[in-house]
Amino acid sequence: MITELGFYPNNGYVLLGDVKEALPWFKKIYDITPALSIADPPYGDITSELWDKADIPAWIDTIKEHESWRCPIYWWGGIGKQGYRPFFEFILEAERSTHYRMRDLITWKKKRAYGKAKDYLFIREECAFLTFFGNEVITWNTPYLDEKRGYPGYNAKYPAKSEYKRRGNVWDETELLRDKLHPTQKAPIVCQIPIETHTNPGELVLDLYSGSGETSIQALKLGRRFIAVEKNEAMAINICKRIEAAASRQ
Q1: pTM across the whole model
Q2: Hey, which residues does 8 pair with through a beta bridge?
Q3: So what CATH class is 3-248?
Q4: What b/e string do you get for 219-235 counting C-beta neighbours within 10 Å, with b at 16 or more?
Q5: Residue-wise pLDDT tens digits, 158-210
Q6: Is the separation of the CB atoms in 165 and 145 below 8 Å?
Q7: How far apart are CA 77 and CA 245, in angstroms?
């Protein structure tokens, strides 16, 4: 069952329910086409939370629901454990059984590290950038860092297009350490990057497995519309409160 908890004119919706039910539901209800989809599902027994269970068949169904839209998808995950790699299994299965392909694998390099005495310190989180048949996307607003290049480019025939360095597929950004509303809440900047890169103001962003609603909050701040889908009622209500607070400050 899908419940519309929040509706924000000209901005978006907050839906309470499971993603696998929500996508076909709002395809029937709303005449909309998303420009971008960002999903942050359970990683699969990485946290101690009961909800942290991987569901690869449901994830594949979610990818299939995107095929009529053909929008780019950013899918967060982790490397898993020995003998249990649901994120990588999902990517392989998506390429086998859907029309989406992983165009790039992004690593979020964190400042905080943890690990064992005889392991490398663990400072990463993964995000698969998927496109329809692996094709180039229509909207690509080249992402740049705040750091200047300091040189015009390596080849005089092809000078740099900006004085700032271009962002790569390793995002070296500080994570959210305090006041987290959800155990796997993402830092605002890593939500902003794909939104700014693949959408323009007024376009729609799908925020799937929304959790804290950070993606929707950043979409709102950047002048995009959003649809947040979260199956935990307490978290979904919290998303509504956060959006109302953010909208009041716009």
Answers
A1: 0.94
A2: 12
A3: alpha beta
A4: bbbbebbbbbbbbeeeb
A5: 777 888 999 999 999 988 777 888 888 899 999 999 999 999 999 999 999 99
A6: yes
A7: 29
